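Hello Y.,

Per our agreement to keep a running log of every chain we model this quarter, I'm adding this entry. I've kept the format consistent with earlier entries: sequence first, then predicted structure.
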Amino acid sequence: MAGRRMIGTKTVGRTLAHDSAELHVQGAAAFIDDLREPEGLVHVYPGFAGDGALGRITTVDLSAVLAAPGVIRVLTAKDVPGLNDCAPVFGGDPILADGRIMFHGQVIFAVVAATRGAARRAARLARIGIAAETPAVTVEDALAAKTIDVGEPYRFLRGDPAKRIAAAKHSVSESFRIGGQEHFYLEGQASLAVPEEHDAVTVHCSTQHPSEVQHIVAHMLHVPAALVTVECRRMGGAFGGKESQAAQWACLAALAARLTGRPAKCRLDRDEDMMLTGKRHDFRVDYRAGFDAKGRVSAVEVDFLARCGCSADLSNAICDRTMFHADNAYFYPAARIATRRLRTNTVSNTAFRGFGGPQGMLFAERLMEVIAIRTGQDPLDVRKANLYGVKGSVTPYGMKVADNIAPGIIAELEKSSGYRARRLKIARFNARNPVLKKGISLTPVKFGISFTLTHLNQAGALVHVYTDGSVHLNHGGTEMGQGLYTKVAQVVAEEFGISAAAVRITATTTGKVPNTSATAASSGADLNGMAARAAASTIKNRLIDFAARQWKAPKSRIRFEDGRVLIGNRAIAFGELARQAHIARVPLSSTGYYATPKIHWDRARGKGRPFFYFAYGAACSEVTIDTLTGELKVERVDILHDAGRSLNPGLDIGQVEGGFVQGMGWLTTEELVFDDQGRLRTHAPSTYKIPCASDVPADFRVKLFESPGNREDTIHRSKAVGEPPLMLGISVWTAIFDAVASLKPGAVPRLDAPATPEAILRAVKGMTA
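Predicted structure for the entry above:
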């Protein structure tokens, strides 16, 4: 499967190694902190109050900081020449707090020193007083304190769900909790700012959104955006945590560079990185649903109460996407899907792979499990009975599900995984074993692809062809390990009929492609691949026109393949054609642009087509739990995922595997713990547990769905594969739910997410009490 190539292509559809793979394994790939440090470099480190999550700043005594060895100066809010805010949209995120703090760890000052160690040590010497107020830490705290939400409540409404639930033969009403998640990228937040003439600055930043960092730094320095260049060659992971969160550290580095006239670098330690940056949103989910004896849903009412943190950040769009995916692959005849965006005195939560969608899907899958228990049916049969296409095909937000391949994927995986036979075997195992209990679950994924803020669905690219036939490629997408650069290079190579090795991949920079969108929403290859192909196609058409004139050949008989250009009966090297075209004064450089068609969204009405298409997948997971300790083992996982006509099957399978494991971690081992004073207590790998190699199931079967291609006109008919696989991990949580449910048929487990051993043990005790 990994070596499969799509019909009619030579480079696209092949498994090529990630462009940095060899550098990664050699330890030679340069990340921000690996860049050669310029002469005179200073280091910047943030400082904050040791106690307090909410209150007025009463004292800021920095005398000991300034007197510390190696310290050059200290930055505070009064040093900011322009806008003291690094928020992506709505404001409310000061670069340096002034007057009040809104969460524990909020940055109040920054130390500029000759070495990073000196800056870190000095930052701890500050004496800061806070007139502490009682913080709102949990959803319940925010509700009780009646804090002002970071965004207006919002809902989708179809029909009269309350009336239909009242009339239903069966109904359920319950509440459960979904935890957040730390990004835990391997490379922490880092920026290196280099001052230039005329107050300009170049910022090397580990960011998914160079253009946003550019504009925020420009506003802070009070200079035009053209004087700020932001560049990123690669990130050591991001997962959404470097979309809006990178800007603050870039600003501190740029401010230090401006005020000292020297290059400045800001890199956070892991503890501070975890304390000072946002997480995946956690939710309390309150819902009611009506259904019949066959498990078919008639109506749903669900309220997602999001703990957003101290500011809006991207919470409004994230909560909207939670609502967009609260149906997952299921049709709700009547529905009210609502969110509250609650303000708490914790670090502002932010984008994370799936962008709110996973939380909505987890609700949908829990609902299917609960209905199965209440009706005594196999959960897979309940899922099948509620799929789009069985009773309806229009979502609660008015979009028709026209590309529905979920039933086919589920049917294929049900057969290939041996789901039915294994469920019978598990039932026999559970009947014989009083302590160990097994569970199995097969869950689908239907994930919408596009930014729901329509104007973000655009991209630009720049391509140069040199006279030796080598190609320079630049575009607005960023590389965070997912292989985007490799895929886009394959697209350009395919267009010119050359090898991918002939395409030089260059760092994303605002100096070459302006006004870019974040590499997010799983749209990196969709947008940038199309833009790069447009640029390459422009040059290719010029070369075709030149060749047709030069050798008097019809354009229909000019082909680019295997590094050559076939012109009628003549064949010349691609580089030779480029050389001769240059002599003939044919331009060999072009920009390219792409905007996603067909999408539109009227948020006020809650209707439209926010997504260009849906990506699908399904996972079947089998687990064993120990009812005495709550320990868990994932025994086997089967995955079938839809990547359309994959641009690079090897990279896509890697994304599926990694996304699944990250989703599994979110729902099993990764628990964020805040105390009642708003302090994050799990801010290091000693207390926050991401999955390790031994957590990956030994029997792990991953396959890409054999697809004829995306029905929409995407780049080579491929589909996005960045975020959707994370939600395949939901099958592990529902398998745990199934195992706990086996203890008492007909009873619904009180299991929250993540299903840590403690949570599993609580659920088990609830079933046996």
